Amino acid sequence: MAQAVGKKTKESFFTGAFSSFSVDDISEAREFYGKTLGVEVSDNEEGGLELSFDDGSSVFIYPKDDHDPATFTVLNFQVDDIEDAVDELIDQGVTFEQYDGEMQTDEKGIFLGKENGKGPNIAWFKDPAGNFLSVIEN
Question: What is the CATH number of the domain that holds 101?
Answer without folding.
Answer: 3.10.180.10
